[in-house]
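User: Sequence in, structure out. Go.
Assistant: Echoing your sequence, followed by the structure tokens.
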Amino acid sequence: TGHALAALAVAADPAGKVLVSGGADKTVRGWNPADGKEQWKWEGRSVVCGLAVSADAKRLAVGCADGKLLI
């Protein structure tokens, strides 16, 4: 289904196995790059403005509009 408001950040691991998006709806969503289907959703408290996936795809960094960085 996707984000309710604008998607503001997208990140993927180097191997292309993990794809995540974050947005103005204060959610981070994980997607299956092969079929484009949403795999999971995390609801936060602030607009998501930045994302990074670690090289081994085991960690995700989320930058929020309230100045917090979540790992």
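User: And one key feature?
Assistant: The mean pLDDT is 95.
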